[in-house]
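Researcher: Go.
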Amino acid sequence: MRRLSILIAASLFCFSPVSQAVLAPPALAQGRFIEREVVRYSVRPGDTMSSIARSAGIPLSELQFLNRGVDPRFLRVGQTIYLPADAPVAQLSLTLDQSRGRIDDDVALRGSGFEPGSRVQIMAGDSPYRLQVIGNARADRRGGVNIAVGLPNWARPGQQIFFGLQSRNGRARAVADAYQVIGRPSRPERPLFSVSGTLTRQGVECPTMRGDDGRTYSLAGDIRGFYPGDRVTVDGVIAEMSICQQGTTIDVRRVTPSQ
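Model: Structure:
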């Protein structure tokens, strides 16, 4: 078998998750060896072989074929795998301004690589593999997302929280390194707020509700199971920094049906 010359550009040593194209090791197909142009991809927090294949727009079987010898059960952050050079891999990244903070501190998220002007879901969880949507944002004209969010209401001192940004169709996701929750609140906890009203379709970034008090509220949090037109009572706290565009933002703690 002839020796392959692998062209590796200097950019292979940068921090981008996807490097320039190289030639993959030869693969056996129909009794002969073939070559394929690929890119080297660095595994990020929250990645699985299945999620990488979805982002690349290729079957999982093809990804596994390109990475024979890689055990999908034990992917490591920073591990290098191969992707087809023509795969539409999103060049996503997400970093935090701080890696630790008190339970009532806001966390600054800085993402890049999203489709300019697109809606992006903000996610959080106790593991990079278990993330839930906690809000929405919109990428700027360069595909960046810069936003500050509060910790989920279930966060406790001593926990690690993982934040992610995901495209609306779920195919592109970036997850940041762990955020360590330390100490007790540095200021008094915000008082609980309760309001009843009707869910509406006004929301652009977040679900909205027309309160019985005549005001419009945006709801940041999980309201799964409820839809525009439903009568609900929302319990939560008034957000100090809004991630929504309509009215007053409520960090939702609980949603229940209302008459």
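Model: The radius of gyration is 22 Å.
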